Amino acid sequence: MNDWTEDEALILDQIDRFAAEVLAPRAAELDETATFATCHLPAMAELGLFGLNLPEAEGGVGLSGPALYRAVEIVAAACGSTASMLTAHFLATDSLHLGANAKLKARILPRAAAGALGAFALTEPGAGSNPADMRTTARREGDGYRLSGSKCFISNAGAAEFIAVYAKTDPEAGARGVSAFVVEPKTTAGIDIAPAERTMGLRGGHVFGITLDCHVPEENRIGAEGSGFRTAMKVLDNGRIEVAAQATGIAAAALDLAVAYAKERRVGGHPIADFQGLQWMLADSANDLAAARALGYAAARLRGTGARYSTESAHAKLFASEAACRIADRALQIHGGYGYCRDFPLERYLRDLRIFRIYEGSSEIQRTILARGLLG
Fold this sequence. Notes:
The chain is of the alpha+beta class. The chain has three domains: about 5-115, Butyryl-Coa Dehydrogenase, subunit A, domain 1, CATH 1.10.540; about 120-230, Butyryl-CoA Dehydrogenase, subunit A, domain 2 (Beta Barrel), CATH 2.40.110.10; about 230-375, Butyryl-CoA Dehydrogenase, subunit A, domain 3 (Up-down Bundle). It contains ten helices and ten strands. The chain has helices at about 5-35, 40-45, 65-80, 80-100, 100-115, 230-265, 275-300, 310-335, 345-355, 365-375; strands at about 120, 135-140, 145-155, 160-170, 180-185, 190-195, 205-215, 220, 265, 270. The strands form three sheets. Strands 1-4-5-8 form a four-stranded mixed beta sheet. Strand 2 (about 135-140) and strand 3 (about 145-155) form a beta hairpin. The two termini are about 35 Å apart. The model has no long low-confidence stretch (mean pLDDT about 95).
């Protein structure tokens, strides 16, 4: 029994067809040429993908947490880079959905759901795992704020129509001094976006450095002054579930390839699937995938309920990101030398998966979150 409604099942079927017919055939090309996944943006916008995480009242589709998890899995299995672009957009829209007033939501979110790309600017060169250490400031100036500072590894920034930027309105107050703002780079002077980073994987999901020395009006502030850190933590709870979904989506694709190859490849007149050692590798991968999905869906069911789920999202992100690497590595091993060649997608899967143990809070940060929960 699925965790989604009949209407959601129809939406997921549409996404599945789109992923198979449009995303998967170009995934290797995006990786090989480092083509930004925004090439898919118009078609994805037409299908409503950019509003999957938003309620209908804000211009979105209003998928439940489990259906959204499954949608991200489907996209990631077809093209990790495209899933990266999409989920980075969700971080930006979630910043407004969870933190902004009605007026700001009404101005930005319907456009975002229709395909106006968003970015989420939290990470800085000296403040990755601990956002409270950020140095970017937002000081009162005229009818708004002067934002000054730098951000790094910001997905989508080079093509974004709006960026949720987190900055210190009170530099002495630590986490309580963080506020959030909507910055619209195409109409705002004083924003410098560096060329895309050259990354190991997700090469079509571009990340950028940003330098800010710009003015934003007060109405672009997301929530009250000092509420930004709380908003960011809620956004990251959602983002970690989406990382888990990306990981299990890619891992499932790798396992499917491994099973098919094991049945087809013959050694000594027998398919290699007949060998117990290989069977156990497949069984371990199936077990890893089932456990990762169980944790992912457990967290996804809590999304939007009003309950706290920081622990559940940490469990899901930590286990899925590490298990997926094991699954893809076993799949490559089963393919032998062929798996190491770019004619097969397995080496791409491994490269794409590696970042999931780092962004949205590294594996070490997730372990710290879980330990704090245990120790009180």
